[in-house]
Amino acid sequence: MNFLRILVFPVSLLYGIIMLIRNKMFDWGLLPSQTFKVPVISVGNLSVGGTGKTPHIEYLAEYLLDKYKVAILSRGYKRKTKGYLEANSASTVNDIGDEPFQYFKKYKNNVIIAVDGNRRRGISNILKNYPDTDVILLDDAFQHRYVKPALNILLTDYRNLFVNDYVLPTGYLREFRRGAKRADVLVVTKTPKVFSPIDKELILKQISKYLNKKILFSYIQYDKLQPVTKACKKKHPAKIKSVFLLTGIANTSPLEEYIKRISDEIYHLRYSDHHKYSKKDVEEIIRFYNEVFSGDKAIVTTEKDLMRLQNTELIDFFNNIPLYYLPIKIKFHENGDKKIKELVENLIT
User: Fold this and answer.
1) Within this chain, do residues 37 and 77 fall inside the same structural domain, yes or no?
2) Which among 237, 242, 301, 346 is most buried, taking Cβ atoms within 10 Å?
3) What is this structure's pTM?
4) Residue-level pLDDT at 1
């Protein structure tokens, strides 16, 4: 912990106590926590961003949508609209936020996508407009206790376990570590694909102090690079000599490691999480790209970053540049896939 973080530790302590009192008020019934007639599954974390909520929501949606009427409700972080809003073909990133926009682009009308900072109101509107809804997935709602989910899934990053972190602003936690006890399932995300049993046991030992319920381990499976612009020379290249990695996400470490395996050199163009790209940003990106001499080079971005570029006029600036995005999927170690599906099925059937 550096000096500045030590200096603000009293602020972290005060903030943590405020959150603790708030949680106790929900526990004691002094603040209302509403349940609903359909199963509500919350996917969230204790920390600020970077644990992989979006691909885990997609994992659940893709499993469920063939058999059930599924809705995803998000607050729509950094959107320019207010209140309850449903995604449709006219929606933009500014209307609903990058993650809900990504969900809609992927699932279209096969999944109801809605945004509302007030989750109780959002769920009520979904059920009013779509009374045949079978299950609602809440994106990033672990601290939104006005809704009591039927299944509370907590995520923690393998490289930054909540047990080793501190409350804001000293660390990145939104509340004290003991908040993990509210979870029904904890998923340690972004683990290595080849996962040491010794490493696993060490993590279980650390976490068991806070949570003795189901603890699962997931990892990211990267798919083939997908072309975005007509300048892409190959449809799904296995390797690119020089990759210009364009990211505006919280945790880029696993992605960087993967890109290093499929390229000879990497230039990381890093922006803050949910960064809203400007014309100036794009001009600087392209200028830097053009300054580097290489016979085989391309810009690679994440699916979430692409949502913030593709729905604006900025995407046209990349017309003459090979631009790819890298899709990802969630996989579970051992029988984690079976366990989480059984939990979900038991709620709905």
Assistant:
1) yes
2) 301
3) 0.94
4) 57
